[in-house]
Structures are given as structure tokens and as C-alpha cells.
Design brief:
Helix 3 crosses helix 4. The radius of gyration is 19 Å and the shape is globular. It is 68% helix and 2% strand. Pfam families: DUF4806. This is DUF4806 domain-containing protein.
């Protein structure tokens, strides 16, 4: 009887894993279809210009504007993800750091910790910046297999070093 219970639990766990894998696979297929239909040319890069003007986020007002735009327009969100995924890097750490530098200024990043548990800091993981970062990393072909936890850890360290970077830039 105990073995049946164990087998049943494992079966449910495997079913959940398969469901997650299928969702990821469908997402990858959709991204591939959309990237096949729209080759990256210099003229298509003009579509990213309005996004580039709003980044990096330097204050709460610009963060609120950025958070409202993709909510109203899913294509804007997808274009932003695509633009960020083109930033790239040689590995996951460099890619995350390069994208974060484009997303948020060091001075504003000082007000965040990843989960918001530190003193009076805001939760980065509750912002659209976190969603954009994770989607952009997973949109990059050589980083699609990286876990969300890896991205969170690198981001958390990057945020904790924001004060140091801000001092060095001044």
C-alpha cells in the first residue's frame, strides 16, 4: 500500500514536470515562429526606439510609465523583451548584468532588493523589470535552459552592489 502511495505521488510530480516542460516548449515555438516572420534589419530596429528612450528607469515615475505601457499593449511588452534579448552576453551572468544596466540606473537600483525584505527597500521581483529580464534571458537561444533561480540570484547580487557602482560612477 505504501508503495502505491509513493508511486502515485511520483506520478503526480512527473505530470507537473511534463506540464511545465510543455508550456516552455510551446513558448519557445511561438517565439521561434515570430522571429522567423520578422528578420532583424536596421529598419526594424527603429521599432525599438521609443523603448530605448524610456530606459534605463531612473525613478518611480518612469517605472510606473513602463509598467502601464505593456499592460495596455502586449506587443510593446514583446518588443521590449526582444530588444533586451538582443543585448546578449557571453554567459548568463554577463547577459543578466548587461540587461539590468539597460533596465535600471544604479542610483534607482539602490532602492531595491530582489524580494524587498531588506529594510525599506522595494521588491524588484514585483516590478515589470523582473518580468522583462527573465523573459529576455529565456528568449536568448543559448540561455533558454537557464533556471529562473539563476537569474534571481545574479539579479539579487547586482542590486546589492548598486550603491558601490553608484559611488564609483560619481
Amino acid at each position: 500500500m505504501r508503495q502505491l502511495v509513493t508511486l502515485n505521488a511520483r506520478s503526480k510530480e512527473h505530470s507537473e514536470y511534463l506540464h511545465t516542460i510543455l508550456m516552455i516548449l510551446n513558448d519557445i515555438q511561438e517565439k521561434q515562429k515570430s522571429s522567423d516572420n520578422q528578420p532583424a534589419t536596421p529598419s526594424s530596429m527603429l521599432e525599438f526606439e521609443p523603448i530605448y528612450e524610456t530606459l534605463p528607469v531612473t525613478n518611480e515615475e518612469s517605472l510606473n510609465l513602463l509598467q502601464q505601457a505593456p499592460t495596455n499593449d502586449q506587443t510593446m511588452f514583446n518588443k521590449t523583451v526582444k530588444m533586451l534579448s538582443l543585448i546578449g552576453g557571453s554567459d548568463i551572468k554577463e547577459s543578466v548584468r548587461r540587461i539590468l544596466r539597460k533596465l535600471i540606473s544604479n542610483d534607482y537600483a539602490k532602492q531595491f532588493s530582489y524580494t524587498g525584505h531588506k529594510s525599506s527597500k522595494h521588491a524588484f521581483n514585483k516590478t515589470i523589470l523582473s518580468s522583462l529580464l527573465i523573459k529576455a534571458i529565456h528568449s536568448t537561444s543559448n540561455l533558454a535552459d537557464k533556471s529562473v533561480k539563476e537569474v534571481e540570484t545574479i539579479t539579487s547580487i547586482w542590486l546589492s552592489n548598486a550603491s558601490e557602482r553608484a559611488k564609483n560612477n560619481n
